[in-house]
Amino acid sequence: MSAEETLILVKPDGVARGLTGEILRRVESKGYRLVDIRLVTADRSLLAEHYAEHEGKPFFEPLLEFMSSGPIVAIRAEGNRVIEGFRALAGATDPTVALPGTIRGDLGRDWGLKVQQNLVHGSDSSLSAERELKLWFS
Ligand code: IDP
Ligand code: MG
User: Fold this and answer.
1) Is 54 a catalytic residue?
2) DSSP SS3 for 98
3) Entry pTM
4) pLDDT (tens digit, 9 = 90+) per residue, 51-80?
């Protein structure tokens, strides 16, 4: 059986704040393998597909605007249970309540905006990972 893969994104706030290295360090230190990595400026159609499940929610437009505001680092990472493992490294969606020790808990905060700028994305299931990896690495 080949090892599981997930999509990790360092969102525009993480890249702009110079935290890409720190985030990659945490992923590698945990023991996951970087299979592929690219710097992407995402267009609206890619982002709308990526976040299709959130269409219609009040933060959807602010989310697309935020995610297209600057370059994103997209990472294909590999390892047994990497999907669950990276979600644990990332921490809760809301950076104010994300536990210390997590990426969002240690490095993120609430900036009082319409969308939470929380540094990273990680696929939430094997189905999402397969779908999202196709979108970002094709
Ligand atoms: P996740 O990134 O932890 O999987 P999702 O619920 O999939 O969280 O939401 C996607 C992204 O949309 C979040 O990472 C965050 O940037 C933003 N977001 C989600 N829920 C809210 C909210 O209630 N208010 C503001 N922004 C939100
Ligand atoms: Mg999500």
Assistant:
1) no
2) coil
3) 0.98
4) 999 999 999 999 999 999 999 999 999 999
Give CA angle at 116 (110, 119), nearest 5°. 90
Q: Where are the domains of the chain?
A: 4-136
Regarding the beta carbon of 115 and ligand 1, being less than 6 Å apart is answered: yes
Of the candidate CATH numbers 3.40.50.2300, 3.40.50.720, 2.60.40.10, 3.30.70.141, the domain formed by 4-136 belongs to: 3.30.70.141
20 CB less than 6 Å from ligand 1? no
Secondary structure letter of residue 118 according to DSSP = -
Provide the token pair at 121: 């994305």
Ligand with smallest separation from the Cα of 129: 2
At 15 the three-state DSSP class reads: helix
